[in-house]
Each structure stands twice: as C-alpha cells, then as structure tokens.
Design a protein that fits this description.
Elements lengths: L4 H53 L2 H17 L3 E6 L4 E4 L6 H4 L2 H8 L4 E6 L8 E10 L2 E11 L1 H51 L14 H57 L4 H32 L7 E5 H18 L3 E6 L4 E5 H17 L5 E9 L2 E8 L6 H4 L24 H11 L3 E7 L3 E9 L6
Helix pairs in contact: 1-2, 1-5, 5-6, 6-7, 7-11, 8-9, 9-11
Length: about 475
C-alpha cells in the first residue's frame, strides 16, 4: 500500500509523541505512587516511634489513657494502630481496627521477634477489608521482644492523588497532541512542498531542460540536496554545451575530411584514367606519378593523425624516455622542414647549447616539435621561426616562436581541442589542415609529465613553450 510522504511524516510525529507520553505517564504514575506510599509509611513510622516512647515509660494500666490523644490525631489522618506486648497480646487498640491476626502473619511475627521493622507500602492481603499500608515497630530489651506497635492506613488517599494526577496528565496529553498535530501538519506540508519542487525540477532535467536553479535558503539535508541539484544541473548544462560544441566541430571535421579525401581521390582517379586511355609522353607520366604520390601522402597524413590521436587517448602507446642532447632533435626538425620554410620565405633558426640535455621519448619529441613547427610555418609568411632550448629549475624548456599572424585571445583556450582550427579558411593548406596536430601535441606532452603553454598576439606572432621535467641521470 502506497502511503504519501506527507502522511508518513504526520503519523511519525504523532506516533513518537504518543509513545513518549505513554512511557512518561507510566513512569510518572509509578513514581508518584512510590512517593505517595513512601510518604504515608514515613508518616506512620514517625507516629509509631512517638507511641513507642510512651510504651517504654507507661504501665499497662496507664496505656489506654495516655494513648487516647494519639487515637484522636491519627483518626483524623485515617491511621489506625494497636499496641502489643511480648506475647502478642493487644494492650491498646482502636475499636475499628481489624483483628491483629489479620495484620501480622507468622512470618511477620518472626521478623518482629528478631527486632526487625516491618514496612509494607501496599498490602493486598485478602484478610484485610481493603488495600492498605502497614508499619510494625518492635521494642527490644536485652535482645528480646518486649512489645511494639502496628499502624495501618488505607491507600485510598494515595490513589485519589494519583487519579487526580492522571486527570491532569490526560489534559496535558490532549493539548500536546493538538499542538503537535498542528505543527506536524505545517512542517509536513512545508517539507513536502520542497520535495515537490525537487521532483518538478528532476522531471525537467529528464526532458532535457538543464537551465534550472532551485531557490535554497534552508541549511538542512533537503537544502544540501537542493545545492547538489543546482550543481548537477549546472554541470549538465555545461556538458551539453560542450557536447554541442564538439558535435559542431565533429560535423565540420567530417565535412573537411570528406572534402580533403574527395579532392585527392578525384585527382588520382582522373590521372589514372588518363594514363590508361591515352598515349601519355614519358615526361607527363612522371609528373602524373609524382602528383599521385603527393595526393596519396596527403590522405595518409589524415589517417595517421587520427590513428595517433586515438592511440594516445586510449593509452596504447608506451614512451621510451632517456637522456640525450636536445640539439639532435632540433637538427632533425631543421633538416625536415627547411625546404617547407623556404617555400614561404621563412627563416628557420635553431638556438641551443650543444650540451643541453632533454629527458624524453626521441620519436615522440620529434613528432611534437614537427607539429608545432609546421603549424608555425603554415601561419607565417616571409618571417622567422625560432627553436630555442634551455634548462631552468630542473626542467628542459623548449620554445617555438614565429612572427606569423598570431591567434586571437578568444581562440587560445580552444587551441588544444580536437577538430579545432583557429583559421577555418585554411582547410586546404598542405600542413596541419585537419585540426588534430595540436591536440596530439598536448596529449604527448602530458604523457611526458610535462606542460605546454602558448603566448600569442594577433598579427605579431605566437610562442609555444614546452616544459619537460629533467630527472637526475643514473650512474
């Protein structure tokens, strides 16, 4: 059976209060009874001791006369008594007293003979006409029983006190339950409304609406849940925006790749058909083969860049790092890219101390610097590209600086993202046209436990700064 949270709260509040009241009232009832019976017993013991003082000083003939004032006083207190001697003979008693045999059993007489006081807070003996409290006090002389006094008082007065207390308790219970019901009703509705707002917001999230903010002014668990919900909604909103942005770039990337593949494939197809259907001079054939080779390399670059990125992202490559002179890498870069730089009237310069070391994977560091340097050559016309290396604070610092067109500030934060191209109009340039190179560079530098950053100013150039840790060489 489904029970709404509102009724669960209401029932739990009232139930807890009712259980607490029952427990407290039960304990209070027993406590008051014990106090009432104890007070009655203490009162009878006090009068009994006074009677015993007279018992010690009076003769049997004087007993009834001297105890008469006690009879008057105790009768007003609803206390009855009788005095007995060492043989159990009653010396003085009130006329309305029950037979002493009904009050003192053989076991009680045995205790009195030993000098023990008998105190019974509540006697339910069937020999008495009603329930009562009983006190029996002995008088001992040379270790033997000389006599004593027995006092009895009905517990009716205590019961009336308890009944009156219970009446007040019932009133208190009714008032407390009424107040608790009103407060529980208010609090239950209050909390259920807050939960209802959370549920409505959750439904919006489920339908794809992440632009939600819950007003939260309460420092409790539901308030904390509301804060967490707002945080979740914000993160989902940012994630959706990021996914939309990446999806847009992915579509652009697919369009670019399709275009880049279509162009060389169309060229190769046309050249192959021409070579197969016509008498082509030898010189023209060589040009055709060279063009087919260039277009094939162009397609391979696209495939290789994608494969490299996926391998790096899925941790499928292992670095073989060791110490070696940084100048070795710079010379390879200069040898591979000098012709490319000359085609755009750029100067490719290298500056590093011959003894400067670097701790890296040789092939992957070349891949990093080739990508960055190609990117610099691509966006520089008639300028300078400089590769410098130095050691600072236990790191090898490599800088690749160009005097090209630079990167706008709003584009810098996206430069490492896959498919991103700072200049979309350059999709047909020979190098770095697919927007994957710098993303691969970032992944490879991270694998080296290094850090890469850039500084750029529009129309003034860009500087890439790579920091690779330089641990101590072994041996």
């Amino acid at each position: 059976m489904k029970i709404k949270y509102f009724y669960q709260l209401l029932i739990s509040h009232l139930g807890l209060l009712l259980i607490a009241i029952i427990i407290i009232s039960t304990l209070m009832s027993h406590f008051v009874k014990d106090i009432a019976y104890q007070n009655r017993v203490d009162e009878m013991s006090s009068y009994g001791n006074e009677i015993l003082e007279n018992f010690k000083q009076l003769s049997k003939a004087e007993m009834n006369f001297r105890l008469r004032p006690f009879e008057d006083i105790l009768s007003t207190r609803q206390i009855r008594f009788f005095v007995f001697d060492e043989k159990g003979t009653v010396l003085s008693q009130q006329q309305e007293m029950p037979p002493h045999e009904a009050l003192l059993t053989k076991d009680l007489w045995a205790k009195l003979a030993k000098g023990e006081e008998i105190i019974v807070k509540r006697s339910d003996s069937r020999r008495l006409d009603q329930e009562a409290s009983l006190v029996a006090l002995p008088v001992m002389e040379d270790g033997k029983l000389k006599g004593g006094v027995v006092l009895i008082a009905p517990i009716q007065g205590a019961e009336e006190l308890i009944a009156q207390m219970n009446r007040y308790l019932y009133i208190i219970v009714f008032v407390a339950l009424t107040i608790t019901f009103i407060l529980s009703l208010f609090l239950s509705k209050f909390h259920v409304n807050r939960i209802k707002k959370l549920r409505e917001a959750t439904e919006k999230i489920a339908h794809g609406d992440y632009n939600i903010h819950l007003e939260n002014k309460h420092l409790d668990e539901i308030g904390t849940l509301g804060e967490d919900f707002n945080m979740m909604a914000n993160r989902l909103q940012r994630s959706r925006e990021e996914i939309d942005r990446l999806e847009k770039r992915r579509r652009q990337f697919i369009a670019d790749v399709s275009h880049e593949l279509k162009t060389p494939l169309t060229t190769i197809r046309g050249l192959v058909e021409w070579l197969n259907t016509a008498d082509v001079p030898t010189e023209e054939k060589e040009k055709c083969y060279a063009l087919i080779t260039d277009e094939t390399k162009r397609m391979l670059r696209l495939v290789n860049e994608n494969m490299d990125y996926e391998k790096i992202r899925s941790n499928q490559i292992t670095l073989q790092k060791f110490h070696y002179p940084l100048i070795d890498t710079f010379e390879v870069i200069k040898e591979q890219l000098s012709r490319m730089a000359e085609e755009k009237n750029n100067q490719l310069m290298v500056e590093v101390h011959p003894e400067q070391k670097v701790y890296a994977d040789y092939d992957r560091l070349i891949q990093i610097l080739v990508n960055i340097t190609k990117n610099a050559i691509q966006f520089t016309e008639g300028g300078r590209i400089s590769l410098t290396g130095k050691e600072e604070n236990g790191e090898t610092i490599i800088e690749v600086e160009d005097t090209g067109i630079g990167i706008a500030p709003e584009e810098v934060k996206h430069i490492w993202e896959r498919f991103y191209k700072a200049d979309i109009s350059r999709t047909n340039t020979p190098y770095g046209e697919y927007g994957l190179g710098l993303s691969i560079v970032k992944q490879l530098v991270d694998l080296h436990d290094g850090h890469i950053d850039l500084k750029s100013e529009k129309h003034k150039g860009t500087t890439f700064i790579i920091r690779l840790p330089l641990p101590q060489e072994k041996g």
